[in-house]
Design a protein that fits this description.
about 110 residues; 3 strands; three-stranded mixed sheet; 6 helices; GMP Synthetase, Chain A, domain 3
Length: about 110
C-alpha cells in the first residue's frame, strides 16, 4: 500500500531545506561550543559592539570578578580605549543583555593572538 502523505507534502516538518552558507553553520557551531562564561559572551559580541577598527587592535582575553581584561596591540590603543572605557562598557552591557554584566574594563598591552 502506498503512503500518500509523503507525496502530498503533508509532512512538511520532514522536508529537507536547501543548503545553508558555511559561515552560518560555523557561526552556529561556534556559539554552541563556546563556554557559557562572561568572557565567552564578551568575546562573542566584541567585534560587532566595538566596531572593526577597535576589534582589530584589541581583544578581550580574560575575566575576573566581572572585570574584562582587553589586550591591545599598542600602548596608544590601550590609552585611547581607557579614555573610552565608560562608553565601551555601556555598549557591551547593552549587547550582553540583562543576564550578564561587565563591571569594568582593564586594558593591557601585548601581542594579539587570533
Amino acid at each position: 500500500m502506498r503512503d500518500d502523505s509523503r507525496s502530498s507534502g503533508t509532512h512538511s516538518s520532514s522536508r529537507r531545506r536547501g543548503p545553508r552558507e558555511l559561515g552560518h553553520a560555523l557561526s552556529s557551531l561556534r556559539r554552541d561550543l563556546a563556554p557559557r562564561t562572561l568572557l565567552g559572551a564578551v568575546q562573542e559580541c566584541w567585534a560587532r559592539t566595538v566596531g572593526e577598527p577597535v576589534s582589530e587592535q584589541a581583544v578581550p582575553v580574560s575575566e575576573r570578578g566581572g572585570t574584562i581584561t582587553v589586550r591591545c596591540r599598542s600602548a596608544v590603543w590601550a590609552s585611547e580605549l581607557s579614555l573610552l572605557a565608560e562608553s565601551l562598557l555601556e555598549r557591551l552591557n547593552l549587547s550582553l543583555g540583562e543576564e550578564r554584566r561587565v563591571r569594568s574594563l582593564k586594558f593591557t598591552v601585548g601581542p594579539l593572538e587570533r
